[in-house]
Amino acid sequence: QVQLVESGGGLVQPGGSLTLSCTISGLTVSRSIVRWYRRVPGKEREFVARIEGVGDSTMYGDSAKGRFTISRDNAKNTAYLQMNSLKPEDTAVYSCNAYRPGATTSYWGQGTQVTVSS
């Protein structure tokens, strides 16, 4: 059974930093594609970042470019999202998603709330 568990969310002041974690079981992160998304109530889910298991290729949504970094630790089977220079508009529930390349099924975590406010 595949499970994704996010952690690391919380309240941070504008300009601050947070690192989110996505700990995965049932999938090998080094052979999977992991993505971070975020959602604000009343808005569509927004793509944030992606990392490929093979080759470490990364991709970012426009809102994340230059401020966020996605990475993974194969030994811990965990993906991370380092978020710097946070803005109030980054406030959202952040969720990770993972799937095996070529698979039609992807898996989601429960999400973690990030609130950027003074």
Short description:
By secondary structure, this protein is mostly beta strands. Helices cover 0% and strands 51% of the residues.
Summarize this structure as a short list of keywords or feature phrases.
118 residues, four-stranded antiparallel β-sheet, seven-stranded mixed β-sheet, mainly beta
Describe this structure in words.
The protein is mainly β and 118 residues long. Helices cover 0% and strands 51% of the residues. It contains no helices and eleven strands. The chain has strands spanning 3-7, 10-12, 18-25, 33-39, 46-52, 58-60, 68-73, 78-83, 92-99, 107-108, 112-116. Strands 2, 4, 5, 6, 9, 10 and 11 form a seven-stranded mixed β-sheet that branches. A four-stranded antiparallel β-sheet has the order 1-3-8-7, with no helix packed on it. A hairpin with a 5-residue loop joins strand 5 (46-52) and strand 6. The radius of gyration is 13 Å and the shape is globular. The termini are far apart.
The overall pLDDT average reads 96
Oligomeric state, counting identical vs distinct chains: single chain
Individual helix count: 0
Structural class: mainly beta
Shape, per Cα inertia axes: globular
Describe the sheet with the most strands.
7 strands, mixed
Q: Uncertain runs with pLDDT below 50, 5 residues or more? A: none
Tell how many strands the DSSP assignment holds. 11
Topology:
Layout: E1 3-7, E2 10-12, E3 18-25, E4 33-39, E5 46-52, E6 58-60, E7 68-73, E8 78-83, E9 92-99, E10 107-108, E11 112-116
